[in-house]
Specification:
This protein has 376 residues and is an alpha/beta fold. The protein folds into two domains: 245 residues, no CATH class; 97 residues, D-Maltodextrin-Binding Protein, domain 2 (3-Layer(aba) Sandwich), CATH 3.40.190.10. Helix content is 60%, strand content 9%. The protein contains 13 helices and six strands. The strands form two sheets. The protein has a four-stranded mixed sheet with strand order 2-1-3-4, sandwiched between helices. Strands 5-6 form a two-stranded antiparallel sheet. A hairpin with a 5-residue loop joins strand 3 and strand 4.
Length: 376
Amino acid sequence: MKPPVSLIKILMVARKTLVEMVREPQLLAFDFLLPLSFVIIFAFGYSTNPRLATYRILVYDQGGASSAPLLDQLAQKAYDDGRPMFKLEQAADLATAEDILKNHQAAALLILDTTDQGQPSIALRGDAAYMAFNNASNLLNNALQPYLASLAGASLPIWFIETPLAVRGPLSDFDAFAPGMIVFAILLLTPHTAMILGRELRMGTLRRLQLSALSTAEYLTGVTLAQMGVALFQVILIFLCAVLAGFHNQGSLLLAILIGWLLSFSAIALGLLVACFSSNDSDALNTGSTVAMLQVFLSGAFFAMPSPELFILGHTSFRLFDLIPASHIMIAFQQVLSSGAGLERVAERLLFAAALSLIIFIVSLLLFQRTQRRFR
């Protein structure tokens, strides 16, 4: 039995789109090399910094006996697996300690002294642009606050004790930040998809297609099918590149690839939506890049964004930015890649992401027909 005519047309459009991409190496480079370059650069910047490292802390102690209890507490601080958080070393003088900090041979310098009233004085120095200092200073702050409160005879009104939900977790800063970087890399499909359609508008291809019986749905579905084929290879390469660059995957790599492929569909659908309001490939590329970056920031790929809760659906708290499919994908990536969660843990998030992506795709079909061409 022959397939429906509409399916044949969809496949023909998909073939046409793929052939055009193969004939233009710069488009393939945009699809593959650009995302991979971001992952590699990110790996070089963060993979050498362990997430649960023992940080070398220089101590310039002028407090004498009053500093001993604090130093004992810091020396006893350890992670859940028993590794010490800090390696304390006495600094002979401030000038030498400052040189060590500048060369990043130590994470931080702790200066201890005593005030005229006999109270301990604590100062912390380090390079704010050095990731090890940022991590160590957070750990030191968590250790110092209860100690200072006890010296003042006060108790902290609220003190959070962090208990990991999973035994496994990120082993380096690259492990912690890689899910967001992968989201960013995949979302680059948004400007690329918009650019493909913008070029067709500029070259007048759609006008020629008006003479055929090709519908908007068949054309955009064909383009989407071609992009999804390219996206599958792109997602696989991104994950392989991340693993080869030192990423420690804690979950199912196959599940992570499927989640990334779902994000690809969301990015492509948004690219179609951008094309509805573009007149050429330049406009489409610029607008698509802006939309992609907005998704990156609002989804929490780079840092957590405050977002008010709207309602609870199933077991999921739906917040304002959860209307973006990438937000659900970002959470799913973190749970699978960093905590080793399985499909049952992220299934609800993936269903929401798929539903939102499908809605964007359908809206794109309707808008494109109204704004760009009139099919029979």
